[in-house]
Every structure is written in structure tokens, then in C-alpha cells.
Design goal:
Number of helices: 4
Helix content: 25-40%
Order of helices and strands: EHHEEEEEHEEH
Radius of gyration: 18 Å
Strand content: 15-25%
Number of strands: 8
Largest sheet: 8 strands, antiparallel
Distance between the termini: 57 Å
Shape: globular
Amino acid sequence: MSDAERGFDASAQLAAGEEVARMRRWCAPTAFVRARRDEVLEGQSEGWPVYRLEVGPRAVLVGRPVHVGKDLTGRCMRGYAAFDLEGEWVGFLKDCWRVGGEDRQEHLVYEQIGACGGREYVATCVAAGDVEGGQETKTHETTVGGGLRHYRMLVRELCRPLTDFANFRELAGIFLSVLRGASPVRA
């Protein structure tokens, strides 16, 4: 098997020194965003180098993941605070293995919710798509009906952790707003 067939991501490159310096000099708009940027930079001292990843036409810098799926099997979802090199902002990058098929891309759901009037309640997808080189598993063809494809999605907003909400009522109110935006109430 080739490196790509064994799961090596050729699109992940160590970030250049000037790119990391740009992220370090960037003036974050809030303390929360600044803390996420600093976590990416501080991860270097703990063995998490800063990488440059491609998400469609965009290039982002990521460090230590802010979320890693703990399951031994599955889609291996990882979430990163990501510094967009083009626009110089920090957003969220989801990196996972999605079930094959063109209609099974998560960013299409975001577009559908936005088309139904729920745009203000859903994160803004800036770029998304399968990782260049077409990484796809072969072993999942019998268990999930097709191979899993390496997929990335970059959203503009850097989301708050669930522990930041005062209580479940506050969080449920947001869910209700999204559902109302995505599915108009019928009389």
C-alpha cells in the first residue's frame, strides 16, 4: 500500500516559521479567541507542532486538537482551533472520516438549514471537502456500505464548550432556535 492508503495525510505540512509568526502577531478580537490561539502556540512546547492544512482552497494552521474522539473505532473526529492564513481569523476545523457518497457531506446540511431561514443559528461553513488525494478506507465497505473518506470542514465561528452554558435550559433554547429555523412550524 502507498502512504496515502495507509492513512498518511500528504496535505499536512509543518508550518513555516513566518506563518507561525503571523499567527503569533495577530490581534485576537476577544480573550476567548486569544486563548484558543495561544493554546495552538503553547502546544509546541508539549510536542504538538503547528501544521499547515488545506481545506479546499483555504490554508489553515492547527496545533494540538481541542477535541479528539475517544472511541477505538469509528470516524476518528478531531476538532482544532484553526488560524486562517488568508483572512487572518481563528475558526474551528473538523477533521474526520465521513461515510462515502457525495450527498453525505456535512457542509451540505449547513447550507440546507441556511436555505430554510436558520442561517443565524448555524455556524458559517467557509470551506469543506474531502482531503486532496482521495483518502478512502477499504475495510469499511462491508460494515457501512462503502469506504470512509477523509473530510475536513472549516467554520468561521469558534464555538463555546458545553461547560460554558449556565444550564441545560440555555443550551436547549439554542437547539430550539435552530430547529425552528430549519423546519418551519406548520399550522
